[in-house]
Design a protein that fits this description.
The protein is α+β, with helices and mostly antiparallel strands. Helix content is 53%, strand content 20%. A hairpin with a 4-residue loop joins strand 3 and strand 4 (150-163).
Length: 463
């Protein structure tokens, strides 16, 4: 008896709390498929800004070192920002591959009405010209596919049907079923190694995308250093060209003076003028090349599409130093370091792992499909049971009122009839009356001290 009371209380608690919790549960479920209110890539790709290099400008000059070029490139260069998206996209793709292994919850409800003329009195009973039926169908299902290839499903169905068929024993009737099903693949798609092959390949691809990003950063840093030292060389080359031009112009002036005093032939002046023109051409070419290199560095350290918008002139502050013997590795050490640290070697190792995973998966897909499965079903039926002396519209002997709890009880292994539920409700009401009368007597005695209790109030009803 106590077990039945506990079951009734539990069901009442579930039904009363479902209405309040359903809205929050549905909202939380739908939030998984709504776009996020913030940009998830902002944590990986910081916002590009020009404030870093603008703060270094002094009187139209931008003093810059090799480390400044690399730092500003990582902060402001759009290519770096774009390259950061590849590992992020790989991470999201890995998350989608786990979706087939996530548990699923299916809820469905159907309400319908069916009516059709009858061709035989066995369809609805004697005297019926049409068969009319009202049905309610509710289902809830849970399922999950495990990484080992096992499939687990639990499905609960509850159907309510009411019609004008006189041959039905229960009308309205409640039919409930609880089905457990388990299946396991034995050959094809068996085991974690096969079912997780796409995930393993995607994880390796994530590492490959990170290696590609590392390679791209190495190339950008190398290009930045190369451009910086090219600019340093071209600035020094401009100085050399200018000195050479000044020397050629001085030589031309001296030759012209010697021609005027007659100590040199005029043809020598023509040759000197050609040398001056050649050095002027070299000066223009070197200055143009230095400007082009400066624009490439500006484009690298800023997010501006046109480097001409950066009006400041770059001023390299790092001077080249003379190499020392320790700056150059030996050939053996260089080869060893390259084999251990070069990202291309790690990328090739991951590609070999992906090829091995794909080979195992493809060989498994050549196997026949063989699975073992098992299921177990619990059934229950309830409703208003009508007992007749015979079939059809014969005399009704007895009607036993039941309902949803009868079907629940048979499905889940307990019996709770509506009569027992009415008895529990009646017992609860009598307890409430008993408590109210006790409170009334206490209030009367506290307000009328010494007076007798009125008749009918001095005894409590029996429970």
């Amino acid at each position: 008896m106590k077990i039945r009371i506990f079951v009734v209380g539990l069901l009442l608690a579930v039904f009363t709390t479902t209405a309040t919790a359903q809205s929050k549960w549905v909202e939380q479920f739908l939030n998984r498929y709504r776009p996020t209110p913030f940009d998830p890539a902002s944590r990986v790709t910081p916002r590009v800004s020009d404030e870093a290099w603008r703060g270094l400008v002094q009187s139209g000059m931008l003093p810059i070192s090799v480390s400044d070029v690399i730092r500003l490139m990582l902060q402001s260069n759009l290519d770096v920002t774009v390259n950061r998206f590849s590992p992020l996209a790989s991470q999201y793709y890995i998350q989608t591959l786990f979706r087939p292994f996530e548990p699923t919850l299916d809820l469905s409800a159907t309400v319908g009405k069916f009516s059709a003329p009858v061709a035989s009195q066995l369809t609805a009973g004697a005297g019926a010209t049409a068969f009319s039926q009202l049905y309610h169908r509710y289902a809830i299902g849970f399922g999950q596919t495990l990484h080992t290839g096992t499939r687990v499903d639990v499905t609960f169905n509850m159907n309510r049907t009411s019609d004008n068929n006189l041959f039905n024993t229960f009308n309205p009737s409640y039919r409930g079923t609880l089905n457990y099903a388990v299946s396991q693949q034995l050959l094809r798609n068996y085991g974690r190694d096969i079912n997780d092959s796409a995930i393993r390949v995607a994880r390796n691809n994530l590492n490959i995308s990170e290696i590609d990003f590392e390679t791209q950063m190495i190339d950008l840093v190398t290009d930045a250093q190369t451009l910086y030292w090219d600019l340093v060389f071209q600035r020094e080359d401009i100085k050399v060209r200018r000195q050479s031009l000044d020397l050629a112009q001085k030589t031309l002036a001296d030759n012209r003076r010697q021609v005027e005093i007659g100590t040199m032939a005029p043809i020598e002046v023509v040759q000197t003028e050609a040398d001056v023109a050649q050095r002027q051409e070299q000066m223009v070419t070197t200055s143009y090349t230095a400007d082009q290199t400066q624009d490439r560095i500006k484009r690298m350290i800023t997010n501006l599409g046109d480097p001409a918008l950066v009006l400041a002139k770059l001023s390299p502050v790092d001077a080249p130093r003379k190499p020392v013997p320790n700056d150059v590795m030996s050939v053996e050490d260089a080869i060893k370091y390259a084999l251990e640290s070069r990202p291309e070697m790690r990328r090739l190792a991951l590609e070999l792992q992906n090829s091995d995973v794909d080979l195992k998966y493809n060989k498994n897909q050549l196997l026949p499909s063989l699975a073992v499965s098992g299921s177990y079903t619990q059934n229950g039926v309830g409703g208003v049971q009508t007992k007749r002396t015979g079939l059809g519209d014969s005399e009704v002997v007895e009607k036993i009122h039941g309902g949803l709890f009868d079907a629940f009880g048979q499905v889940f292994g307990f019996q709770l009839h509506y009569r027992e539920l009415e008895r529990l409700v009646r017992r609860f009401n009598s307890s409430s009356i008993h408590f109210n009368l006790a409170v009334s007597i206490a209030n009367f005695q506290s307000n009328h001290l010494g007076e007798p209790v009125p008749p009918g109030l001095d005894r409590l009803p029996r429970r």
